[in-house]
């Protein structure tokens, strides 16, 4: 069956809503009247509207601050775009606590994937650096390491418990090992 322009025009006429000048009874019932607009609030003298001033939300911080804490993205205070220090080499490894029941009996739901890991270990190579020169700051999603020679601003792939982290300095290899416990939502892979 071929569609011509006549078929399309007849289809549009069939689907088009009725014009304003049609005389159907349904439209007569829907026409508003003055009495239909009145409600219980319109009986008696009209009340004066009180002028209300919009409430300004209370600021929780310092009134001299330019930005609020919720307006600044996390980790932006560590933005070091114009810092000439190089970024050190680092490796990120995921660590899993495996017990004998996981190893031999395989009763748990743990898999060798990173979804079943509990800890994140970041190994940062800092040649020519001493432990006294290290400044480490860990937030929930950001790790900031600064030394006189290097700087590292690392956005973490998963939120971590920044209060229970552990950092160890290996002076012989000049490597800083930072172990952070991950805080992830529980799901079928992550329990």
From TrEMBL:
Region (Disordered) residue spans: 1-88
Q: Which residues form the signal peptide?
A: none
Give the Gene Ontology MF terms in alphabetical order: dynein intermediate chain binding; protein-folding chaperone binding
Where the record annotates domain PIH1D1/2/3 CS-like, the positions are 87-181
**Residue ranges, compositional bias (Acidic residues):** 68-77
Question: Which ranges are annotated Polar residues under compositional bias?
Answer: 1-13
Q: Which GO terms describe its biological process?
A: axonemal dynein complex assembly
Q: Which family does it belong to?
A: Belongs to the PIH1 family.
What's the protein name? Protein PIH1D3-like
